[in-house]
Design a protein that fits this description.
Blueprint lengths: L5 E11 L6 E8 L4 E3 L2 E3 L6 H13 L1 E16 L2 E15 L9 E6 H7 L3 H15 L2
Length: 137
């Protein structure tokens, strides 16, 4: 068994609502796990973590993004292996979601609703961190 962590990266993707200008966070639903999370994925060999995070956002949500401040790096066990996921805040740009085998739905939700919808507590903490970072930006 390999003890090296699986390296992954993602973004807490946000935008201003087109309806009322309030902050919204984008969550992805993964049918394989039936969970709601932030867009993220494994890095390709030698890939820069930020480049991988931006790539994963576009692959999973269909949206391009403008990366901002670095957020927490999470460490946890997944399928019996340590996993390390680096996150950034990223503002959603243009794009259009198309369901695929990896992500069948996305939702843009206000911060509190996004926090409630997220499956993992560690992902909820990233929403808190995003809101704190944007408040002080």
């Amino acid at each position: 068994m390999n003890g090296d962590p699986v390296l992954a990266a993602g973004c807490v993707l946000w935008r201003r609502s087109p309806f009322d200008g309030e902050l919204e966070v984008c969550l992805v639903h993964r049918p394989k796990y039936d969970d709601w999370s932030h867009p993220k994925g494994k890095l390709k060999r030698g890939e820069d973590p930020l480049a991988g995070a931006v790539r994963e956002v576009e692959e999973e949500t269909g949206y391009r993004c403008v990366p901002g401040p670095r957020l927490a790096t999470l460490h946890y066990m997944a399928n019996g292996r340590p996993k390390q996921v680096s996150y950034w805040a990223a503002q959603g740009a243009d794009g259009h979601f198309v369901p695929n085998h990896e992500v069948d739905r996305i939702r843009w939700l206000p911060g509190a609703a996004a926090r409630e919808r997220l499956t993992q507590p560690r992902d909820q903490e990233l929403v808190d961190e995003l809101l704190a970072v944007l408040r002080h930006a």
